[in-house]
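Supplementary Methods. Inverse-folding protocol.

Structures were first reduced to a discrete structure-token string of length 256. This string, shown here, constituted the complete conditioning input.
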């Protein structure tokens, strides 16, 4: 009986050499992403257990320590401008996150306060009217620090401020420049998100992470499975393994 033979056809070998490291690397990258999301969830839970701080105390911390911290606010909302973050979907419906300027009286700082989601016009012919309470408010909010650079279609430019403004994201440098020039006092660096049980807000169910750790792990399994399948196909294509095993089975059955 002929033994196991290999014939490494160059095109098959080249394709395998190029694809296999890529598939394995994608699998490990998804595992790294899963760990990052798990750390974000752990940090959020840890910070939620801490007592709320004032905005002045919060400003003394660095960005890493500020992320997900709860903060006490006391002051009033500005009637304008109202920032409407474009293309925010909830339950498959088009809408906007509403970001208002809030003046914190004890610290004298102005913050971008995300009050939650409202439905919008899918045809984009009009912007929703946003009610703004005039009374002084005492609120609890959470600091939102973006885990990475947000994707934007193009860099936004602002010649001025309007009462209602459609924006791609609240952290745009051009937008912050325009807001700093328009408000009295310093503007806090990060967006604050109004906690769900607080007044003066709308729908507030922001996902903690856009993709769960379990889903990233599932993607990793898919990439590793594809890598394993590629190895099997390469071995079968480059050897007589299938014929070898079939002949061996036939020989075993004849001996019996």
């Amino acid at each position: 009986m002929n033994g196991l033979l290999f014939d490494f056809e160059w095109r098959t070998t080249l394709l395998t050499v190029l694809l296999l490291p890529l598939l394995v690397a994608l699998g490990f990258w998804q595992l790294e992403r899963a760990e990052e999301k798990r750390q974000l969830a752990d940090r959020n839970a840890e910070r939620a257990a801490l007592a709320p701080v004032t905005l002045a105390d919060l400003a003394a911390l660095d960005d890493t320590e500020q992320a997900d911290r709860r903060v006490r606010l006391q002051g009033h909302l500005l009637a304008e401008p109202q920032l409407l973050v474009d293309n925010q979907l909830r339950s498959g419906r088009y809408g906007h996150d509403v970001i208002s300027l809030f003046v914190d009286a004890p610290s004298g700082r102005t913050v971008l306060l995300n009050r939650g989601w409202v439905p919008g016009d899918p045809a984009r012919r009009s912007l929703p009217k946003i009610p703004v309470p005039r009374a002084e408010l005492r609120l609890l909010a959470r600091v939102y620090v973006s885990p990475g650079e947000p994707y934007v279609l193009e860099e936004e430019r602002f010649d001025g401020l309007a009462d209602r403004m459609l924006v791609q994201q609240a952290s745009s440098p051009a937008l912050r420049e325009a807001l700093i020039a328009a408000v009295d006092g310093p503007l806090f660096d990060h967006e604050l998100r109004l906690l769900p049980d607080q007044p003066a807000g709308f729908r507030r169910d922001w996902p903690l992470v856009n993709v769960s750790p379990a889903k990233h792990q599932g993607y990793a399994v898919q990439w590793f499975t594809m890598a394993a399948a590629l190895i099997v196909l390469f071995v079968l294509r480059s050897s007589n393994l299938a014929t070898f095993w079939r002949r061996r089975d036939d020989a075993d059955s004849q001996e019996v």
